[in-house]
Structure formats: structure tokens, C-alpha cells
Amino acid sequence: MIAATRKRVWWMIVPALVLLVGFLVLPYASIVVMSLRTADTRAVYGEGFTLSHYAQIVTDPFIWGIVGRSLRMGLTVTVVTLLLGYPVAYHLANLRSRWASMLYIFVISPLLVGMVVRTFAWMIILSNNGVINGALKSLGLIERPILLLNTPLGVTIALIHVFLPFVILPLLGNLQAISPDLAAAGRSLGASRLRTFLKVTLPLSLPGIQAGAILVFVLSISAYVTPAMLGGTRGRTMSVLVVQYLVDSFRWPAGAALAIFMSAITLAIIVVYLRLTARAMRRLP
Amino acid sequence: MTTLTLDGIDKFYGDLHILKDINLEVGQGEFISLLGPSGCGKTTTLRCIAGFEPIDRGRLLFGTREMTNVAPEHRDLGMVFQSYALFPHMTVAENLAFGLEVRKVAPAERAARIAKVLEMVRLAGYEGRFPRELSGGQQQRVALARALVIEPAVLLLDEPLANLDAALRDDMRFFIRDLQQRVGITTIYVTHDQSEALVMSDRIVVMEKGVVAQCGTPKEIYERPASRMVAGFIGHSDVIEGTVLGREGAMIVVETAAGRLRAHGPEAVSGPVHLMIRPEKLRPGLAENAMTGRVKKAVYQGSALLVVVELPSGQEISALLDADAAVAVGAELTLGFAARHGWVIAR
């Protein structure tokens, strides 16, 4: 019986496995190999293998600066989306109304607009004579425009907007699975609304927070279109830099090394993050 | 420990009138069951007492303290939920400590009280377990312990046995009742199970469509139901339609298709009525209130013999007879009952 069950499960994962190996593992492997090639001016890469690209990357303060900026932006976007998204998810989870489905659509609305269209809209909103600066100026609050376009701040704002659903949806699923009786039990035992939330609901929603945060962080770090269009040089992130290496400067081996370097940093952060959050959640069922 | 007063409570959901003028006085240490079919308002009544549902009209008092608009956390009550609602990320001891920490009970006293209550619910030694490591019955007792350890004024139980299997449920009935009497706590118990209400309660409040249909001791509810609905909801009953002819002392004479029958009933009953008899009160061959008919069915039930008799009027009445009674299907059978075992209900 057990053997039969195992066999069935094995066959069922084959399609996903083929996709994963064919479109993730193999390209990744080829990028790793590429990053070890020597540079060449006449071909994509030269003869022989070298670690020099990695050596250049880790000794270059300019690259470390951009890594730092990418991580700072990713962290800011993650924290802010969590702070903005949690109340929305909490409200939606407790909603018993026919407007609930309308609110769901509202929540995922950032994803319903094409990425490029949405980013152009942000250019209009953020630019020096755009909506925000125009409004502030006509209110007499500022004389000269605040720089938003081509800054890390502008990119951060736009990323928060797109990635909000990615933190709301996992949290919503998590919060909906928590029985309302638990909060009622907390209140009946004498705990205030706030204390009940902090001691009961919040700890039980850690899995949703963990999932949402990791999604948004990874998506922010790897976002390309938004920082490329809104970031300029001051808001340039690692993914933008990698594409510049590959496409603009045609430095494939160095660009591949940069991509692998960034992946390794992200992976390390995720591993540490999972360790820490697993500790925080060890008491959960 | 306190008395509890529900004074003319009304509750609306939009246009729906969920609770209609609920009045109830609960004595100190009394065990009251709210009994009724689903949707009768019993759980809503409990949630109003707990403070989870605002009361639209009327007043709620714990002793002499006005509770109508007090937040649930300030009502000083213990509540046991149908789902138990144990905090899954806390151990048994932490679940019990939750209410004590809120009340700022010193750690040493906290530990002593937790140990004492766990002893009471026969779960000493389970302090470090998580709820998921316990059986349903054990979780149930932890929920009970968590509600009792804070020594609340009132204990509220919302169908606490509904998720347990039948054998365990029977044990827990007596366990809860015994514990309640030892602690002497005023208790409101919501259930849709009439046998649960009968064996556990000091008094039963039968609810129907948001109103109190009857409030009385289990014996009163069972033997002197105020309405056809109450009679039908608690146990089995035979109901014969008739018209009141007059009174003979304590007895009411009712003209029915099965003949002229005599039974007890409320003071001011007249006109068209239902005459109710419990099947176990019918006796074969009894001359008093004798009704003769043909046996349609005789089902052996182990402890009793269930007999269904068709009267000449076409009405069927069922009787629980001695399991050894010699009854043949198709034969004639005369059943009678003592007048004090019959009960007349206005139609």
C-alpha cells in the first residue's frame, strides 16, 4: 500500500520537476559557469576559467554601495508593506459583509495593471511637476519641488504599492484560519482587546507575517522594471546594475558573477531569516 | 459568585428580532440550562451575558452591578466554548496562567491555583503539554479549568460537550455538574440536548424563536410543559386533541376522540386543548382513562417494549411497557393512565 502511494506521488511531481530543472536549475548552472569564464572583447567569453570577477566585485566599494541600497530598499518595502498590510488583512479577515469581494478586488488592484503602465503612472505622480509636487506647490507648502523621481524614495514608494497584495493575501489566509473564539476567550479571561491581540492573535499570525515578508523581500530585491524606470542613477539597484553589465556593457562573465553574488547574499539573508522566524514560531502547531 | 438578572432583554440583527423580552433571575450557585433548537436565541443570550453581543434594550445585572454596557473583559466571567478555544501556542499551564496574569496574581499564588484547579479536573501533571497533545475530553477539561482558575462571578458554557463522543459526553455531564456544585458557581449552560439539560440543571429555560417558552425545574419542564413545543422538545409524548368539559376537583375533564379523559392541567385552561401523556406512564389494562385500540407495532428496546396502538379514531399512541409484557401485533390492547400523569395544554 505504502509503496503504491509513494509511486503515485512520485509520478505526479514529474511535470513540476521537469519545469524546475529545465527552467531554473539548468539556467542557474549555466550562469554559474558563465561567471567563472574569462572576459573577452571579441566573444561573449574568453578561454579558461577565473575567479577574478568575484574578486573584483567583493573589493569594489561602488558595488557594495549598491548592494547596501538594494537591501535597505528591500527591507524598507518589507517593513512598510507589513505595517500597512496587517490592518487591512485583519479587517478583511473579520469582515462579514457583501462588500468583502469588492475589497478583495481592491486589494489585488495593483496587480491588475500592467507593470510598465503602472510604472509610467508613478513617473507622472512623482516627477518634479507631477501630481504630488503640483499639489504641494499649489497649497503653498513648498517652493521648490521635492525630488522623488530618480531617487531610492520614489522606487520604494512604487514598490510598496505593487507588493502590498503579497503581504495582505498570505496574512489574510492565516488570520482567517484563527478561530474568532480564541480572541473571545482572551477577552472573557479579562484581557483587553490590545492585550488579546498581542498575546493571542499576533503570535498565531506569525506564519502569515513570515510568508508575506519573505515574498515581498525577495520580490523587492529582484525587482527590475520599477527601479530601472523610476530609480535613475541614484536609485539604481543590483538588478539594474546586472542588466547594465549584460546588455549595455556586454560584460557577460562579470554580469553573471554579479548576479550570482547578489543571489548568494539574498539566499544567506533568507536562511538567517528562516532560522530566526522558526525560533519565534516553534510553539505554534 | 453572584446572582444574575436578565431584565427585559431585546436584541436585533438589522430587522430581525433575535431576542424578545428575555427575563431571567438566576440564584447564587444555580445551574441554569438554556435549551432549544438551533436558531432559538440561546447562544445569542449567552453572548449577550458575556458581552460579545451588545444588548439593544433591557438590562443585565451581576448581583447588583449593572453590566449592560460593560466590556467582556471587565465582567469577571469564565467561559467555555464549544471549540474549547484553547490557545494553541501556549501550554496547559500557560493557558491557565493567562487570566491570572491579567489579574496580576503573584507567580507563587498563580502556580498554586493552577495546580489546585488541574487537580480538580484530574489533569495534574499535564502542565507542560500543548493543547494539540491532548484528547478532546482532556482539552475540554483544560478549557473548564482555564475558566474556573480565575474564580469568576459567573461561569458560561456554550455547548461544551457537543464535540465529544457519546460515552465521554455522559461522563462529562456528571463531571461538570459535580464540579459546579463543589465550586458553588453560578452557571449558565447552553445546549440543544434535552437529556443533558435534564440531568445537569437546577432549572431549565426552554427557548423558541427568541422568546422564553418555559422556565422551570427539569421535573416541571418534563411533567408540566407550558406548550406543545416544550412537550415535543423534551422527551417523547403522546398528544391527543380535545375540548375541556369542566373540572372535577384538581382534575380537568377533556372530551376527546378516544373518549372522556381526566388529567391535570394549569388553572385557567378551557376550550380546545392538547392532552399530553408520556409513553412510559401508559399502563396496559388500567381502568382509569382507558383507551382501547389495535396494536400496530411492538418493538423490543431492551429496557422496555415500545408499543404503537391505533385507536378507533385513527390516532396512534405509543407506550413504553415492561419489556416482558405479552403484546401481540394485531390484537386489541387497552391502555390507561393515572389522571396526575396526564397534562392539559391550551391549544
UniProtKB/TrEMBL annotation, chain A:
Keyword hit for Transmembrane helix: yes
Annotated protein name in UniProt: ABC transporter permease
Keywords from the named record: Cell membrane, Membrane, Transmembrane, Transmembrane helix, Transport
GO CC annotation terms, alphabetical: plasma membrane
Any one GO BP annotation for this protein: transmembrane transport
Subcellular location: Cell membrane
Domain ABC transmembrane type-1: 67-273
Membrane-spanning segments: 9-29, 71-90, 102-126, 146-172, 204-230, 250-274
Main location: membrane
Pfam family of the protein (one): BPD_transp_1
UniProt membrane topology term: Multi-pass membrane protein
Family statement: Belongs to the binding-protein-dependent transport system permease family. CysTW subfamily.
Automatic annotation (TrEMBL), chain B:
Domain ABC transporter: residue ranges: 4-234
Superkingdom as given in the UniProt entry: Bacteria
Keyword annotations from UniProtKB, A to Z: ATP-binding, Nucleotide-binding, Transport
Pfam families registered for this protein in UniProt: ABC_tran, TOBE_2
SUPFAM superfamilies per record: MOP-like, P-loop containing nucleoside triphosphate hydrolases
PROSITE patterns named in the record: ABC_TRANSPORTER_1 (PS00211), ABC_TRANSPORTER_2 (PS50893)
Alphabetized GO MF terms: ABC-type transporter activity; ATP binding; ATP hydrolysis activity
GO CC annotation terms, alphabetical: ATP-binding cassette (ABC) transporter complex
Family: Belongs to the ABC transporter superfamily.
Protein name: ABC transporter ATP-binding protein
Upper lineage: Bacteria, Pseudomonadati, Pseudomonadota, Alphaproteobacteria, Rhodobacterales
